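Q: What does the predicted 3D structure of BACON domain-containing protein look like?
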Amino acid sequence: MKNNLTDSIYKAWRTGILPLVTALLLLTGCEMDSDMNLPLNVDSNKYTLTSDAGSTQVRIYSTGEWSVRLSEDVEWASINRLNGSGNTPVLFKYGANYGVPRTVDIIFTRGGLEQAVRMTQEGEDPILSLEESRIEIFSNPWDLRIGLDNNLREDYKQIRDTIVYSVIPDEDDDETPEPDEEWIENLAVGTDAVTFSTLKNNSPRKRQAAITLTYIDAKEKKHAVTLTVTQATEEACMTFTPYRAKTTRKATTIKAELKHNLGSLLGKVVCTPTYEGASADWIENITLEDKVLSFDVKENDSEGPRSASIAFSLPGTAGELTPAAPFVVEQTYEADYRTLIKGESGQVVINNPEASFEGIVISDKDNANVETTPNTARNATDYTVNAKTAYVQMLDGSYGYRLQFDAADDNTLKRYSQVKISLNGVTLTKEADPERYTLSGLTAANIVSQTPGTASDLIRKEKSIGQLTDEDIYTYVSLREVEFALPDGSYTNVNEGYFGTANHTSCVPRTLCDKDGGAISMLVNNKTPWRRDGSGMPKGKGTLSGVIVHDLQPRYGYTNEGYIGRYSVRVLEKEEIDLAASESSSNRQTLVEWNWNNAEVRTNADGTIAPDRGNGSLWCTDPAAKYLLDNEYNGLTTSAGLNSKNALKFENTYWWDFAENTGYAVALKFSTEGAGANLSLNFTNSQGNAGGTSIYGPVYWQVEYSTDGVNFTVLPESGFCCRPFVYWQGAGGKDLSYCAVPGYADRVFILPDALRNRPEVTLLIKARSTQCIASNTATVDQGDTGTITSDMAANKRSPMRFGTIAVKSNK
């Protein structure tokens, strides 16, 4: 009550009586009587100053002597006096403020009275943040430094800290355990970092400490930031897969999968190579990323094998940790026997008892999808070729060989094993375009050693389709961001009567594509157990891994020789097809598609065939042609592979306009508005009625395009061969044609970018010549020597069949 009363008297004196007395003094010139005592008072207890340098007067009201001081010594402010009397003002000077708001009090005292005037200078908004908000640390005791970003300058000393401890319970804990100790020590806040030490975690559970830093600014606003430290129960650890590497003499980059519990301390690990023997400094650019150990190995010019090890240490203020055993590197010094053949192609027998090479087996002796098995007769296949073939890539994955053993029993090579192969007496064959190498004439005796391995021992190469080179042939490659161009049915959409239960045809290519416009065939043999297991094909994108090969498939090829592309891929296990099941993950979008999977033909008002997805028209340019539904072989199992009305065929045409000497075509018209990059025409097709007569249709076809429906341009590299369906001929099918196909072939053509975003585009799938197969018993060499004529019997005319026709683009 006394203080309130005194304040009221002070206020009345200052606002009422004091001004009146001052006025009277001015008028009369008289002096105030010394017995009249004025209390200590000021104009205001708070001043707010700009951030610029300056000064201001602070006035005191008193009838006696008084003293004045700053509440603390600061460099940025000063006052011009330490004492005074009466109403003498105090000059407060201050420097420019380039930091956060700051404050200091001016303290006036007279006897037992005191007045404080707070001087607050404006500045930048305070910044207080840590370079990490959460860290995980191993169980070992350790000193840590976390960067601190702030603009507090000397005010950093005003930061206060608190620590809250907790225990992370196990799944079988009924209650959360209480913290058993304060395990953060020596916590200190500096100008640019917070440092502290952890004690060793001897408990069976993880534990956490929440370190909160708090700063209250000059305006009494609170700023806080928290660092959560989680301490594991395991000691500092790094593991590598594989944990050692063996590579060829060539310069290469080695990568190993890394797992660790070091968190951000991984960047402080010191990697030190140690070399055995005289050869040194051949390992460089060692880097540890979050999940990968990587380093470069120089070419081995030491004229002998060499080895080294990379040690890992984590230095600290109290010593260092060794989080991992050394990574061992071995580099061989074998000859590159490919250089024995100087020309583009050729063959040489290696007669050298010392000749050998080491590598990793990427095939398996018991796998049914290693090699295409050839026909020994029209209805007979030599399956031993698959069993006698193996693929071995160099230790660093740089290149590989195809191995052909004399007998299936000689091939004992198991997948992922590391082998040493003697080349004495072995024939080396070099083939061109693409360049590839085969070692033949091998027996079991050529396998000098074989050490079992796992998939983790394999140096993996991950590429897009367009990045493949001839060096990748006969090596294991993971193709990224790929998807099936026509993901309908199973991996082998074939008539099982000619494929699975007979020996007529042994391999089917299915086309993969990517968003860059790349395409590659995946080869699937008829003895592959997962080819038609009921699960169907994935419709999304992903990574597909297998052995890169070059293969000819005369029944399916784009040329008479069976060319299906420079590279193909053989997948040995279904799990290596790591593609998303749903089309929603695809990089591609479908603009228009005809598939007839509902076993019906939908028509437009003009009589053309309407698509099942999108808008467009489909027709045959021969007015005499007719269309009807027919068999497709896109069932999901070997016992239910036939769908009787899921395909469309155009018949009653020779596919040739003899008067104009040009081919007839299947035409499709659609819009490409909204199309993305890499517009493509994808379709599956074949011809014939699966009989020995209706097989004389054009073998050679091409794609043409137009934006006005009148003027057409041939699409470059769009030529392809279309073979007739397989059929039985003669007793036991012994006269069956080598050229016939057991199902529909995939076709993918990238269209010109100029066709995008057009209101109307017309494509023609058009016969290119009158060439047809020679006869129903034609060999591959004789396959295309026949000719369609205008007087050919009507029952010999071959229908053209389609399972799916689609136009797609990138999303």
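A (community wiki): The structure tokens above were generated from the sequence. The CA atoms of residues 47 and 541 lie 67 Å apart. The first helix runs from residue 2 to 28.
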